[in-house]
Amino acid sequence: MSQTAHIPSHRKPRRSASKLALRAGVAGGVLSTIAVAGAAGPANAEPVTETIEMPTLGSLGTDLSSAVAASAEASEQEALDQSLEAQEAAALEKAAKDAKKAKAEADRKAEAERAEKARKEAEAKAEAERAAAEARAEARERASRDAARTQLTATSASDSSSDSDSSSSASESTQVASGSAAAIVAFAKAQVGDAYVSGGTGPNSWDCSGLVQAAYREAGIDLPRISYSQSSMGTSVSLSNLQPGDILYWGSRSGSYHVAIYVGGGKYVGAQNPSTGVVERSLDWDRPSGAVRIL
Hints:
Elements: H1 17-39, H2 57-163, H3 166-172, H4 179-190, E1 195-196, E2 205-206, H5 208-218, H6 227-231, E3 235-237, E4 247-252, E5 255-264, E6 267-273, E7 277-282, E8 290-293
Parallel strand pairs: 1-2
Antiparallel strand pairs: 3-8, 4-5, 4-8, 5-6, 6-7
């Protein structure tokens, strides 16, 4: 170890390179001015009156500060631009995600609506098929019931005819319905006991002209719906010359207010009123005004 190692250093701190360069530049400028002045002429020449103005330390500091400020402002603007670009990119990404989510939700709702519509259509179809099946079953049951009533009526008429004496059979031969008349009479008798409803056309409730129209339809004959139109058809016959299937009317022929069907044996079947419904009555119970024959 050297003998001076323990002695602290008293050397002056080194000046920064920038300060030294600045001072060297200033000194060089001054010396150059002097040299130019000395070389301009002989010793007896007039002194130089023009000098070159060198930049001062103050102006250099100002220029340096301006440069630093401009650099800082440029850096700040660049950082701001980058921040705006990042925000725009994030906004675009969020908008794309929201649009994708909205489309997925719309597709889900549309699929749910299609499924619901299909379900309702299936239910409506099943209900229509069920109603049609019930209607067919009811029609078959009604036809079976009507056939049974018709068979019962025919059997009863046959039995009563066989039990009567020969003279009675001869007198009643014109009162036994046959062919289309038999079908009309059987249908009318089968409805005895049904309700009377104004405007009723069956199968279990009737008004007077509705019952007559339906009975004739059983024989394949179409009649008008209104009573006065029905009594205006066919040929007028007297009440003493009636045959089963003839239409009885009350009132005038072209202005009747009630109609019924003559079923033979001095009786008729008609839908009378709400209190009695469809009944079988003697001609004397409510004497009709006249009769017409369609068959």
